[in-house]
Amino acid sequence: MRCPYCENEDSKVIDSRHTEDGRAIRRRRECEACGRRFTTYEKVEEVILMVIKKDGSRQAFDRNKLLNGIIRACEKRPVSISDMEKIVDDIERGLNNMMEKEVESAFIGELVMERLKDLDEVAYVRFASVYRQFTDINTFVAEIEKLLTNKKNRK
């Protein structure tokens, strides 16, 4: 690590600690040439995940946007915020583990619906109605019938 005072490239680590949020390591260093101390931070380089929208446009993945959609679907339902955050955490972790730089919004929507189906069926139908853009009562009823059929097959 280059010294910010004398530009020497040799320094030694005196102390290492995790930051409060645990996402980085704080290192105190001492320059081998001038003896001055300085602090550096080491963190994992995160790849920006781009979401390909239905219209073909791209935008950076936003976990808050995903969480807000799930919160709206679970409104007035017996689903805790920690359960909703766990869904978002699991989906975000899974997307990052795929090592893809771009993912279609349809894929993310399917992941959310899969998780909501097991958590709360009403929230699932609410999310599906917005996500799949139900245009009339018949598509709404068809989705509920599909849900009931799957439920019977699991028993």
Which spans have pLDDT < 50 for at least 5 consecutive residues?
Answer: none
The major β-sheet equals: 3 strands, antiparallel
Q: How are strands sequenced across the largest beta sheet?
A: 1-2-3
- Provide a count of the helices: 5
Strand content bin? 15-25%
- The strand count comes to 6
Structural class: alpha+beta
Which percent bin holds the helix content? 40-55%
Shape: elongated
CA-CA gap between termini: 61 Å
SSE order, one letter for each helix or strand: EEEEEHHEHHH
In short:
The protein has 155 residues and is α+β, with helices and mostly antiparallel strands.
Descriptive overview:
By secondary structure, the protein is an alpha+beta fold. Helix content is 46%, strand content 21%. It is built from 5 helices and 6 strands. The strands form 2 sheets. It has a 3-stranded antiparallel β-sheet with strand order 1-2-3, with no helix packed on it. Helix 1 packs across helix 2 (81-97), helix 1 crosses helix 4 (121-131) and helix 3 packs antiparallel against helix 4. It is elongated and about 75 Å long. The N and C termini lie far apart (61 Å). The mean pLDDT is 89.
